[in-house]
Amino acid sequence: MPHVVTQSCVGDGSCVFACPVNCIQPTPDDPMFELAEMLHIDPTTCVDCGACVSACPVDAIKPHTLLTPGEEAFTLINAEYHRHDGRQRAPLAPVRPRLHVRDRAEPLRVAIVGSGPAAMYAAEEILTIPDARVSVYERLPVPYGLVRSGVAPDHRRTRRVSRQFDHIRRHTGLTMHLGVEVGRDTTHEQLLTAHHAVIYAVGAATDRPLQIPGADLPGAISATQLVAWYNGHPAHAGRTIDLSHRRAVIIGNGNVALDIARILTLDPEALADTEIAPAALAALRTSRVEEIVIAARRGPEHSAFTLPELVGLAATAGVTLSVRPEDLAAAPAGDKKLELLRGLPPTAGTGRQIQLRYRLAPRRVLGSDAVEAIELERTDGTLTGTGLTETIDAGLLVTSIGYRGAPLSALPFDATTGTIPNDGGRVVDPSTGRDVPGTYVVGWIKRGPTGFIGTNKICSQNTVAALVNDYNADRLPNPIAAPTAVDTRPATWRARAPRMFTRAR
Ligand SMILES: Cc1cc2nc3c(=O)[nH]c(=O)nc-3n(C[C@H](O)[C@H](O)[C@H](O)COP(=O)(O)OP(=O)(O)OC[C@H]3O[C@@H](n4cnc5c(N)ncnc54)[C@H](O)[C@@H]3O)c2cc1C
User: What are the pLDDT digits (tens) for 182-203?
Assistant: First the structure.
């Protein structure tokens, strides 16, 4: 009876290291690992020991007999990956070399800015070094970044990764300062006087804007804002979202767009027992939104969502997912995602519905005082318009075209990629081409907003390896102050958002 990796896989590779027969692929040392949409168990070599089940932080692995009907597609997805992949495997999973730290009078002290996945994986790695100390500075009153303020509330298993982060947080070498914003409450210089190094794990907090006429009308909102609203982020919790219209349009078709479409169409009672913000749940209970159109500029073969998320959306109870046959006609054959799209109904019928639309580029938002309709131009499947337009009536427009990093005052910033320039995690000043001493990056601010929670693990391990090399080579000056010298006065969030991330009922 083989085990099966399901939708909530966060790709951190824990199962790979636990598996005694190396039947889970791709492995973190494989170039495909960073691009993989999930990990896959080979049913022909799985020995059914269950070691991967215990290792998985988000309960994504199940014996195939325990799959729900909505998860059954994953049996084939796991098996097919191995059938098509067909590469020779090493007999055992790779063992990562431990960090080697040269003895120094002063044990390593590192400040980490942010407490999302990248920060927590970096802390975990540093704390494998004897006597090392980590101080985490997080601007919000609660830790773990997008695991709390991004991951959809109904993705309960994915959110369980925070239990693993709780475990890291309990390490005696780690001190967490919540409600402290670096750049506002304390400075980069202050952190560097009290630590050997500072790692920035600040994520990508803003969006790429949609620059078309009318995009600033009331009723147009970015995915970052809407997601933060339903997850109770203190900066967005007080927002009012107008859900009094029948139809909403989402521009962009990545996993975040799918999350939003699902949250807006699900039976609100299915969300009642989640960590959704109480105000968002109340708004969804009176919502009149019944139909979501997800519009993408290119064809279905370029869909940005991943296969596991499409499988999950197609299995959502009470919601019909549809795609027009004419949108699929020109798409190539053979891809599992396209195969699944071809199996969807051509029209949604009645009830709550989500339509996946393709080859439509937004051109104008229409409305006098608020969004009333979106004008889209048909494209040829690339990014070129055909001159033919289509107008879709809608009262809510959500732009979901990508998250983006924001600059930090003390550090260089690449405005094109929205990242901090770096070489393998060492921050580089582009004006001199030199490393900024003692300054490192991990996660989305290092690589851009791509990959899953677990992708940040390898990313953080690589940066920490560079940091330790610099420490061993005496390239990091000894701190001259104690970490207690850093200003950690409580920020105002605590008072303003006492109910943040509490259960809805
Ligand atoms: C809407 C959404 C849903 C997602 N769902 C999934 C999913 O279901 N499964 C999955 O595997 N991946 C998911 N992801 C991807 C995953 O969340 C990211 O890979 C991951 O969170 C990136 O980690 P990070 O640490 O780089 O950034 P973040 O998680 O954004 O963490 C950055 C942290 O830094 C803090 N910070 C920022 N600036 C400062 C400052 N100046 N001082 C102090 N603190 C600061 C922020 O408050 C935040 O806590 C999702 C992403 C989004 C946007």
Answer: 999 999 999 999 999 999 999 9
